[in-house]
Amino acid sequence: MTRALRRTWNRLLGSLFRRNRDADLAEELDSHIQLLAEEGIRRGLPPDEAYRRAKLQCGSARRLSVSALPCPRR
User: How many Cβ atoms are within 10 Å of 33's Cβ, its own excluded?
Assistant: First the structure.
């Protein structure tokens, strides 16, 4: 009984704090893209091309957010 209650409590807490984790990850990804784009601009790329390349280099935000989530325990 205690194990089931603990599992339910952990799921509830996880669902409440997941939004903060997703926002933190998105903010971190944006900062990496910004830094890469600024580096491209310093190297002489036009700003649009620098941002495009930075986004390609960072990859899909959705893929990163899914792979960063902890594995569910059984």
Answer: 19
Instruction: Judge contact between 58 and 30, C-beta under 8 A.
Output: no
**What residue ranges do the domains of the chain occupy?**
2-68
- State how far the alpha carbon of 23 is from the alpha carbons of 18, 27, 36, 44, 60, in Å: 9, 6, 20, 32, 15
As a whole number of angstroms, the distance between CA 18 and CA 5 comes to: 20
Q: pTM for the whole thing?
A: 0.58
Cα–Cα dist 5/44, whole Å: 58
- pLDDT value of position 5: 73
